[in-house]
Structure prediction request, 182 residues.
Amino acid sequence: MRVLNVGCGKAKREFPEASEATEIIGVDISPNSEADILHNLDLTPWPFESDSFDLIIMQDIIEHLEDVPATMNEIWRIARQNCVVRIRTPHYASYYAYNDPTHKRFFGIYAFDGFLTGSQNDLYATAQFSLEERRILFPKVWRITGVSSLANRFSKRWEQLFSFIFRPENLEFEFKAIKTPT
Prediction:
């Protein structure tokens, strides 16, 4: 399994499948990172061949990038068919979203729906993914009290009415790259 850890920082090998991977490549802009390749991720194309990876990890990086549709298109380009893409990012109501001056945007639970196969919002991206899972992650107090379960079950209503009352931490998404033969 060939893995790309995008914006790896100092945690290039910190994900569950690391021991199964035949190759793990880290890419980051910081020379202080564990990156194998130093690259500004706002500049596309990224220095990878198309259809190169089986797993792409994007943990706490997409909120730092300028152009989300261009990023998702680039992820799709370098992903193999059925490549798993994992994204973690602060929720827009999270304490973490606003306390890093390098964050450029914030996301809600439905922010990536325009990249899903069959989406009506295909004006900005050619990337096509299937949604495998999406979750709102909460601090322990909201997990114990059941708020987390209710928010994930009724996520649209929770975001509309309660997201700044019962504040989350992060969002997690898992997608699969869908590439139809040409």
Notes: The chain has a mean pLDDT of 94. The domain at 2-137+170-177 is CATH 3.40.50.150 (Rossmann fold).
